User: Fold this.
Amino acid sequence: GNSYFKKNRYEDAIRMYEKALTFPYSYPFIHYNLGATYEKIGLIDKAIEEYKASITSHNDNTLAFTNLGVLYDKQGLYDRAIEAYQQALANNPYFPLAHNNLGNTYERRGNSEKALTEYKEALKTDKNYADAHNNLGAVYLKNGILDNAIDELQKASKLKPDHVDAHYNLGIAYAAKGLYQEAIDELHLAIRYKANDYAAYR
Assistant:
């Protein structure tokens, strides 16, 4: 199943994982891998079912809960997403992806204060996490805290030079500060790295 998954042969991977689950001694990670495969082909409800089946009392469930959070968030089920991320962090309080994703969900719920807290927690564990710097900067930008926004967005763009959102957000922050040439330069970089990102043309 894993070999097929790596080759993007997802239907074959599903067939092999399902076969493995018929054996007398199957393992939780098979359910997890099956869930990841269903997620790849867009079968979200089946993916959720398999991620849940992979969770056991004697297993590290951090990734399973984190992936559940991602899927619930995509469905707009923000309370369930928050709960899943919190369960992931109960398993591993130092998992930056779960902190970052939890921050994203809080921000979608309109709770910038909690979002800021989670992005900062992600960066305590991994100071080179470009997405967390970008997300933190974006919240600062939205709330008019421009110097902090620019600082975080500069860090994101340096850590990941092709980070389209970081360049776009930095361009907006520079424009808000009246630094128009810098803003133009950043928006050009956003266009360069993702030519079909029409937001950069606004």
Observations:
- The radius of gyration is 20 Å.
